[in-house]
Predict the 3D structure of the following.
Amino acid sequence: MRGSLAPGLLLFLALTIFVGITVYLFAIHYFSPPPPITMVGVQIDHQYDLTLYATGAAFVLAQLGLGWAVFRYRDRGKPARFTRGNTAIEITWMVMTAAVFLGLGALAAKSWAETRIAKASASAIRVDVTEQQFVYYFRYPGPDGKFGRIDPDLISAPTGNPLGIDPNDPAGRDDIVASTLTVPVNHPIELTITSQDVIHNFFVRELRLQQDAVPGMEVPLHFTPDHIGRYYIMCTQLCGMGHNQMHSFLDVVSDADYQKFLARAEAR
Amino acid sequence: MSAASQPVHTPAAASSGFFRRYVFSTDHKIIGLQYYFLALLAVTTGIVLSLMMRIHLAWPQAHWPFVSGGILRPEQYLALMTMHGTIMVFFVLTTAPLGAFGNYFLPIQIGAPDMAFPRLNMLSFWFTFAAFVCMLAAFVVPGGAPISGWTAYPPLSGLGNVTGPGEGMGQTMWIVSIGIFCIASLFASINFITTTIEMRAPGMNLMRMPLTVWAWFVTAVMSLLSFGVLLAALIMLVLDRSGGTSFFIPASLVVNGELQAGRSGGWPLLWEHLFWFFGHPEVYIAILPGMGVTSHILSNFSRKPVFGYRAMAATLCAIGFLGFLLWGHHMFVSGMNPYSSLAFSALTLSIGVPSAVKTFNWLGTLWGGQIRFDTPMLFSIGFVSFFVTGGLSGIFLAQPALDNMLHATYYVVAHFHLVMGVAAIFGIFSATYYWFPKMFGRMMDEKLGKLHFWLTFIGAYCIFMPMHFMGIYGGIRRYSDWSGATYLAALRPMHEFMTVAALATAAAQLIFFYNFFRSLASGAKAADNPWRGTTLEWATASPPPIDNFAGAYPRVYRGPYEYSVPGAAEDFTPQHLPPEAMLVNEGARNA
Amino acid sequence: MHESALADRAGLAAGNIGSGGGLIDGGGRRGGSGAAKTPDRAYVTGMTIALSGIAMFFVAIVSAAVVRRGAPSGDWQPIRAGSELWQILSLNTAVLLASSFTLAHARSRGRSGDENGFRRWWVVTTVLGVLFLAGQLLAWRLLEAAGLYLATNPSSSFFYLATAAHGVHLAAGIIALLLAAFRPVRRMARITAMEVASRYWHAMDAIWIFLFLFLIFGGRA
């Protein structure tokens, strides 16, 4: 029984130090992402913080409880307290846990619905996103507002038609294809995301949004950026040997700059 | 009841030769050890692979002696990662807890002479071994090992070489290996379930089974119902790769400039659904036995019954059941119907409830105890700590809105490594230290054990805690290096820290190996019941005789965790002790 | 290490009590020396468990087909191969269903001691099984004649996959039936071997009916 003081104390100290460091690093938002650039992004950050408080409390209580229990109840040569359990306590903490976890889920549902279930605004600027190993293509419909027909047989990046736009389709003549995504600030944007080969992904940290690009599917994603800047677009879905190199840029610009971008692209 | 009239279960050793006895044995104890040593081989391989990954991540320009060109290329990194994940999940975490310890101790803990189907048992081990050989073969076939991760999403995995190196023969070997593994698992689960139902000793009703038996039983049921689905998916993937079908391959793909002709509209998400329908129960298969072992050991070394035994058994069943309903939480951003995501999210959060109940009950078991800190107990305490830490990050990932920013980042890598790569491994370690005396008749060295525990405990937290922050910051997983986006450069110092911690922790495992093998050869002789435990494995010799109980099969009179019963002379009352044989002291309690 | 030696020995000695048992109370059979063997009912239980695992395999294939039907590409084409195909499949279903009845009949003949009746009806069952497999091959011929091969379109892929998987399992069942009835059985009573084999057979029949209904309502024009 003598021999149990050291390990019991050590465990208590180790767990306390561990809790201290962890809580400190999370509290100072160590390595937090850049601030969000959408209203929904702010909501998502808020939900993250809420979850952090709840799980943080559980973390502290459980780890310190563990540390305290093994220190306080180390072997001291006395009989252990014989008990088979306590149904009332069990039910209490089961209900409390369920309430907290499911409550968090219910609160988070709102942000999810806003980003995925709600439809994009009718005035949204639509951009097609086509991904392939290991590049992004962004296609704008051009002044006629219509996307040209795509024919996979016509896909040929070397001859300047990486998306396979049908040259006989008048709607496609004014389509703009770019390798970065340029959008005007404070304007709703709707992306339609697909892939030409394997599964990729479209992720912008500042939007707090990501979506897999699945070949054979066209998945919508909408957001309204409210801050001008250049932001990384990353591919998070393992897509082959170039996965770690695959990225692009989201350029949120002023209205004037956006019109300039469109004009330059049309001229080409 | 004459001895002559009943057909006797013939022990394998009574007959012949080395091969019959140790290689193609049908004795569950030998088979358990075979699984254990296979898992040791697999975990060593898996750790070496992970160290190579970690060294590359910290120092991407490092010179590798046996690599052509000297620098590790991205596809080589991805191959290491794929094989690391596959080997660890299948050949360590699905093999050691259930195949090794379950095989060895389930029959003994229920008072049976062997599993219900000893020859099927032997087959399931050798199929697993064959699967492992096949998996290793992927390294040496032309093109090398696959690069599609342990999740093998098509079309990356479904089109052959055109999508990347290793996707030809290497991916095929991977598929064949896992297919064989599925069949091995189905064999094993039939055995575990039938044995638990039909072979219990008299008096061993369900509520007197040790929680280890409950855990192995529920794990086997999950195995039974999930591996068949994986097998179906693998067959479809093979047909897509070699039979020209389009289960998962959409039409008109253009890969590397080549139009993939002859495909109709297959759906990649179909693979994701099938794979994760298996894949989610699989991770519970990896952790549940560790939970059973933790309950068992916490009780033994606190000298108290498990707090809330019934709840512990019920939560094992609840986790097993709910575990089949959650698979969509791996697919929140996949393009799946967003309403489904809300349903999967609610179910995923619900499974946090039985897990939390278990955690509270572990604390309740410790509370009021007289805790002895032998090495098995240290690892079980560590299990609780890592399970709490790893489990809580799951609460974030279970909310699709948060998954929007955390999916496929290092946050997820932190989560699953803490629960599977650490907690489940701690379960294996504590089971090893606990049952080593019983299996081998010798004690492991306590000092070395404690040193191993402390180094691993501290080291594992050093390796995996920083990953949370990397993920929140936007550190994407499965990246071979950080030369892509410039913001990733800020993560290099953290990667170096983690790599140093990983090297140190891996080195610490050498202490375990040294302790293990030296104790095998020359450890102190173990008594029948060195931990003063109550369950049936402690009622027989160390190691047990070939038929487990030398013909004298026990009858069970009480539950499995009768420690410090008031009025008893000892602080433990074995399950098989008849009431009339108990020594009772009216005044004093235990010695 | 202070062991209570008296108590332990008493506990071990007291273990020599034979009793049957079941799911709740537990208990393998015990011989006089305490040695136990796998009770016969364990083989039956084991087969039931195995069948659950096998069932999940087929459930996966069918649910994959259902999901694929609803997939975004919207290109599911039902099987068009003329009415002969469905006639053959219906006939095969009837044959397999009949074989379950002949199997049950064979066992009841066996139970009433009619060895010849048992053998006759058992063999009829296996013959019906072989006829079923032949009929399935014929169905495949009809599909090929209609230009539907494994890789032609999603519904044809599922058709071949489901019927091939089932056929392989049924072939194993035919072998099991023959072994159970005609080869010496060592590890269990013959009657248990027959029970085990017939559970498997009836399950294969049920799985076929499940697949057949799916093919009719799911895959058919």
The CA atoms of residues 149 and 168 of chain A lie 9 Å apart. Chain A is about 40% helix and 20% strand. The domain at 125-267 of chain A is CATH 2.60.40.420 (Immunoglobulin-like).
